Amino acid sequence: MGDMANLFGTGRFAQPSGQEESADEAQEAADEAAEEVRRRLAADAGDVEAMSVLGAMLLRRGDFDGAESHLRAATAAGDRAAANNLGVLLHQRGYADDAAGWWRIAAVAGSAAAAHALGRHFRERGDEPAAEYWLCQSAEQGHVLGAYALADLLEHRGDGAGAERWMRAAAERGHREAAYRLARALDRGAGPDRVGRDRAAAPAADEAEQWYRQAAARGHRRAALHLGTILERRGELKEAGRWYLTSAKDGEARAACALGFLLRDAGDTESAAVWWLRAAQDGDGNAANALGALHAERGETQTAERWYRAAMDAGDDNGAYNLGLLCAEQGRTAQAEQWYRRAAYAGHREASNALAILLLRGGDESGAEPWFSKAAEAGSVDAAFNLGILHAGRGEERAALRWYEGAAAAGHTEAALQVGMARLRDGDEREAERFLRCAAGGGSAEAAYRLATVLDARRPPAPAHELGETAQEKSECEEWYERAASQGHRRAQVRVGMLAAARGDVVEAARWYREAAEAGSRNGAFNLGLLLAREGSEPEAVVWWRRAADAGHGRAALRLALVCARRGELAEGQRWADRAVSLGPAEVGERAARLRDALRQELSA
């Protein structure tokens, strides 16, 4: 837009002034008047062609009375164009049958335009065989409107191949609606026996895009919308935006809505809101929902609710669903349930799932289950997963697994984890690995950890290494442990620390142990204490062992008891030994009991 302004400003892009345009129009009017005078003189002198042309000029102007006499005279002299135009005149006056008579005369004489008009006349009368005959006569003579009308008739009759042949012929001659409809047919993959076999080298999608582009370039607003959609899907956002803009300016509400989303994604929410407003005012429910969401994000709940209602009034079920979400966020549970129900009864699957969750939270499990089922059967992956949870809570493991498997097949990460865990319990390690890989790849830290444990159990024992030795190459299981650890999985963090320590990488081991310990892992705190003690930092090690022991770690309590005994803090040592006995496990309890008894004897001596 700036470039165009600069061109205007420098004078390199010349614009006609208002005076120049007025002068041009006046000159055209004068030329037309002069041409009419010449034609009248020639017609009065008996020139048949002049009669025909003059009649056509008057017909275009709306002077039916003046046109008819000239057209009849030219028709009587055998001019087929005049016969066709006389038919047009009579048709506009309401004499359809008389018009058809003159069109027949012109069509028999070879007028493609008259054959097209006659074919349209018979189709309006319901005589499809006669319509097809005359439209075929017109189309075969290269008449673009005849080809399009014939294609439309054949498509209506279910003759896909014939319809595409003539639709293509009309499109190739520049008929924009034909180009658009041909593109739509190619987009849908219609007509496996398409006549375009000579174009088989070009994929149908590419050919559809070409026809959309041709129709859009001729001003077809829906073609511009579809072309923008194709380009956006391909990532060519700048060009997509241009076509959306072209379509939106021509009044296509869906294009205005799509342009709004494109602008929002680019960070220009103010411009997006302008286009959404334009689309919403033209009845686009999706745009109204977008405006509602925008105002909801700004905390303008009343305005958001108004736009959601507008979306609902436009027939968009998302409006009712979004109203339900808005009410639920405000704690208006009864109203949320009302709107969820409205959307759910209309077939909105996410509303069905949300309604079921609302009912379940209210303790109505029997009321929730049918809505979960309805949503799942409609394709809601979340609802399928929730049904799995519902059945698992009842102890119906087989039913739960069936729903988990369905959700996992649709890409639900947590469902894949649940199936993987079930397969592990059943001893089917290979299937477990497959599902755990899916879940881990989907971002589940627990799945990454479980997958790592499966792989860890298979690998041969690594040779022993002393701390400080050169690190070895990491195995796949360690990579999965690290992925889980980086997502905050505490057990994975401890395991990564242990593997790093086994490789001799003390710094890496300490980092992971510390991260796990600070997140509340008692094993992490204990292992960090061990590492610090080996490195000569016993005072800091005691701090972490104390944290681990306070969290219920028996070995940490035993370590504290030993440290206290070595320092001569016998009472404190006995206290930690008692704690270790109570925490266990059995081996630790036995050692702690012996230490406690020894400390007690020492204290009583």
Task: Name a few traits of the molecule.
605 residues, mainly alpha, 35 helices, elongated
Descriptive overview:
By secondary structure, the chain is an all-alpha fold. The protein has helices spanning about 1-10, 20-45, 50-60, 65-75, 80-90, 95-110, 110-125, 130-140, 145-155, 160-170, 175-185, 205-215, 220-235, 235-250, 255-265, 270-280, 285-295, 300-315, 315-330, 335-345, 350-360, 365-375, 380-395, 395-410, 415-425, 430-440, 445-460, 475-485, 490-505, 505-520, 520-535, 540-550, 555-565, 570-585, 585-605. It is about 80% helix and about 0% strand. The model is unreliable at about 1-15, about 190-200 and about 465-470 (pLDDT under 50). Helix 24 (about 395-410) crosses helix 25.
Beta strand count: 0
So what's the overall shape?
Answer: elongated
* Largest sheet data: none
Taking all residues together, what is the mean pLDDT?
A: 88
Low-confidence stretches: 1-16, 190-202, 465-471
SSE arrangement:
Layout lengths: L1 H9 L7 H27 L3 H14 L2 H13 L3 H13 L3 H13 L3 H13 L3 H13 L3 H14 L2 H13 L3 H12 L16 H14 L3 H13 L3 H13 L3 H13 L3 H13 L3 H13 L3 H13 L3 H13 L3 H13 L3 H13 L3 H13 L3 H13 L3 H13 L3 H14 L2 H13 L3 H14 L17 H11 L3 H14 L2 H13 L3 H13 L3 H13 L3 H14 L2 H14 L2 H19 L1
Helix pairs in contact: 2-3, 3-4, 3-5, 4-5, 5-6, 6-7, 7-8, 7-9, 8-9, 9-10, 10-11, 11-12, 12-13, 13-14, 14-15, 15-16, 16-17, 17-18, 17-19, 18-19, 19-20, 20-21, 21-22, 22-23, 23-24, 24-25, 25-26, 26-27, 27-28, 28-29, 29-30, 30-31, 31-32, 32-33, 33-34, 33-35, 34-35
